[in-house]
Specification:
Blueprint (H helix, E strand, L loop, with lengths): L15 H11 L7 H4 L7 E5 L2 E4 L4 E4 L2 H4 L8 H11 L13 H13 L4 E7 L2 H17 L10 E5 L8 H5 L4 H4 L10 E3 L22 H10 L3 E6 L3 E2 L5 E2 L4 H11 L3 E5 L23 E4 L11 E6 H5 L21 H16 L2 H15 L1 H4 L4 E7 L2 E9 L4 E2 L6 H11 L2 E2 L1 E3 L2 E4 L7 H15 L1
Parallel strand pairs: 3-16, 5-6, 5-7, 7-10, 10-11
Antiparallel strand pairs: 1-2, 2-3, 4-12, 8-9, 11-12, 13-14, 14-15, 14-18, 17-18
Helix pairs in contact: 4-12, 5-12, 13-16, 15-16
Length: 459
C-alpha cells in the first residue's frame, strides 16, 4: 500500500480587515486607552524604508518620532541590515552569565571610546527603564560597600516632570504624576525639586537675568541632606517626556559640580538624548560633563533591537570587587543581557556615525530646522518651541499672551497629530505638547515636507 504524499498547506497571509479585527481582539497596547482604540481603525505598519513607514493599506508616512525616539539612520539601513544577517550566521544569543561573546566585548570597548571621559565599564540590559534601574541599584550598593559603609545614603534627588521608565525603581525617580501616582505603594521615597522649565518658570523669573536660580533648591537639599542622598538623577539638557523641556546652558555643569562638592553620585539618563539627538554624541558632551553612572538605550542599536547599557566609572566598578564570601557581586541580570544580535546592530550603528559624518549633518539639519520652524512659532496657538539638535517640543496654548494652556480634555495635541497623519506625517503628542524627533538621516526635502505639514495642521 502506497501512502499518498500530503500536500503542504500554504499559509495565507491575513487580510487587512483580519489584522484590524485581531489587533482589537487580542493586543493590549502601551500608553493607549483601549476603549477608544477598539472603536477606531488601527494604524498597522507593515514595512518601512528610510524616513518613511507604510501601513497595510499602502499609505506612506514620514516617521516624525523615529518610531518613538529609537530610529537614527532611517529604516532598513543597509549597514545594520548586513550586520544582523552576518551575526545570524554565527549565533543569535548566548548568555553573559559566566560567559562572554565577541559582539558584546567589542561594543563595550567602542562605547567607552565615545562616552564622556572617565566612564570605563559597561553593564548591559534590555531597555531604558532597566538601564536606569541598574544605575539606581549600583548607586545604593556602592555606598553600602564603602569603608566604612555609608548605609544612610539611600535616597535620590529627582527633577519634577522627569521620566526615567516604568520599572518600580525608575518610576520612583520619575515626576509625571499621571504615569506614577497609582503605583505609589510600589515606589521608594525620593526628594523632588522643580525642573528648570524656563517657559513656565516655577520661580516666576526670566532667563538669563534669573542667574539660574533654579539650581538653588538642589544645592539646598544637597547641603543639608547629602549624608542620606545616594545620587541625583537627571535627563541632561532635555527632559523629553516632560515635553522637551530644555535646560538653560550651564545647568548640567552646575549639577555635576554640586554632586562632586557634596559627595553624591550624578546619574545621567541619556536614553532619549544619547547617540546624536542633540548634535553631540551624548548631551553631557555639550558641557564636558562626566556623570558617575550613565544610562543609554533607544538609539543604541539604531532603532533595530532592544538593547541598553549602564556605563560606570572605575571608582564605581572597583567597589564591587572582592572575595566570593564578601558577596560584593552586583546581583542583577537579564536573560538577554548583551544579546549578540543587538550588539552587532549597535556596532553597525556606531560605524554609520563615522562613515556618514552623522553628527555634522545633525548640526546642519538642526540649524535649518530652527529656521523652518519660525513660521510655526508665529501661529496663534503655538506658545513655545523648544529645540536641542533634532529634538523639538511645540507647546500649544489657548492664549499666547497669558500662556494659558488648553485643558487636557480638549485633546488639542491629539487633534493636531491626527490631522498631520492625514497629510502623511506621524507624530505623537504628550498632552498639549507636540514632540517631533525625526531620524537623524532626514534629507532637506523631507525636513521641509515635515515642517510644512506641521504648519498646515496647526494653522
Amino acid at each position: 500500500m502506497v501512502r499518498k504524499k500530503s500536500k503542504k498547506k500554504e499559509l495565507v497571509p491575513p487580510t487587512p480587515a483580519q489584522l484590524s479585527k485581531w489587533d482589537r481582539k487580542f493586543v493590549w497596547h502601551p500608553f493607549t486607552q483601549m476603549q477608544e482604540w477598539e472603536q477606531d481603525d488601527p494604524l498597522i505598519i507593515e514595512k518601512a524604508k528610510g524616513a518613511y513607514l507604510y501601513d497595510i493599506h499602502g499609505h506612506k508616512y514620514l516617521d516624525g518620532t523615529s518610531s518613538i525616539w529609537v530610529n537614527l539612520h532611517g529604516h532598513r539601513h543597509p549597514t545594520i541590515d548586513k550586520a544582523i544577517r552576518e551575526q545570524l550566521h554565527k549565533v543569535a544569543h548566548s548568555t553573559l552569565l559566566g560567559a562572554a561573546s565577541p559582539p558584546s566585548i567589542v561594543l563595550a570597548k567602542e562605547l567607552i571610546k565615545i562616552a564622556p571621559k572617565g566612564l570605563s565599564r559597561v553593564f548591559y540590559s534590555d531597555d531604558g527603564s532597566t538601564a536606569v534601574e541598574v544605575a539606581l541599584k549600583m548607586a545604593i550598593q556602592f555606598w553600602q560597600q564603602q569603608s566604612p559603609p555609608a548605609k544612610k545614603k539611600r535616597k535620590f534627588v529627582r527633577l519634577d516632570l522627569a521620566y526615567h521608565g516604568d520599572t518600580a525603581g525608575s518610576m520612583s525617580v520619575g515626576g509625571v504624576k499621571l504615569f506614577h501616582e497609582r503605583f505609589k505603594p510600589l515606589l521608594v521615597d525620593t526628594i523632588s525639586i522643580d525642573a528648570p522649565y524656563c517657559y513656565r518658570c516655577p520661580l516666576k523669573l526670566q532667563y538669563p537675568s534669573c542667574e539660574m536660580a533654579c539650581i538653588d533648591p538642589l544645592e539646598k537639599e544637597l547641603s543639608s541632606r547629602h549624608k542620606e542622598i545616594a545620587g541625583v538623577v537627571i535627563e541632561p539638557m532635555v527632559q523629553a517626556v516632560a515635553g522637551m523641556i530644555t535646560h538653560p546652558p550651564g545647568y548640567i555643569s552646575r549639577v555635576r559640580k554640586l554632586c562632586t562638592q557634596y559627595n553624591v553620585l550624578m546619574i545621567a539618563d541619556e536614553v532619549a538624548t544619547g547617540f546624536g539627538r542633540t548634535g553631540q554624541m551624548f548631551a553631557c558632551d555639550h558641557e564636558k560633563v562626566t556623570p558617575d553612572l550613565m544610562a543609554v538605550a533607544k538609539g543604541l542599536t539604531g532603532g533595530y533591537l532592544p538593547l541598553a547599557a549602564t556605563l560606570a566609572t572605575e571608582k564605581i566598578y572597583q567597589a564591587f570587587l572582592g572575595n566570593y564570601d564578601e558577596f560584593k557581586t552586583f546581583f542583577h541580570g537579564h536573560s538577554y543581557t548583551g544579546n549578540a544580535l543587538g550588539c552587532a546592530a549597535a556596532l553597525a550603528n556606531l560605524e554609520i556615525f563615522l562613515a556618514e559624518k552623522t553628527l555634522a549633518k545633525v548640526r546642519t539639519n538642526s540649524r535649518l530646522f530652527k529656521q523652518l520652524l519660525k513660521p510655526v512659532a508665529a501661529l496663534p496657538i503655538v506658545g513655545d518651541i523648544r529645540q536641542s539638535g533634532m529634538m523639538v517640543g511645540i507647546e500649544l496654548v489657548k492664549n499666547k499672551e497669558t500662556r494659558e494652556p488648553f485643558p487636557l480634555t480638549a485633546r488639542i495635541g491629539h487633534e493636531v497629530a491626527m490631522d498631520c497623519r492625514k497629510h502623511g506625517l506621524l507624530i505623537r503628542p504628550i498632552g498639549n505638547i507636540l514632540v517631533v524627533m525625526p531620524p537623524l538621516r532626514l534629507t532637506v526635502r523631507e525636513l521641509r515636507l515635515m515642517t510644512s505639514i506641521l504648519y498646515r495642521s496647526l494653522k
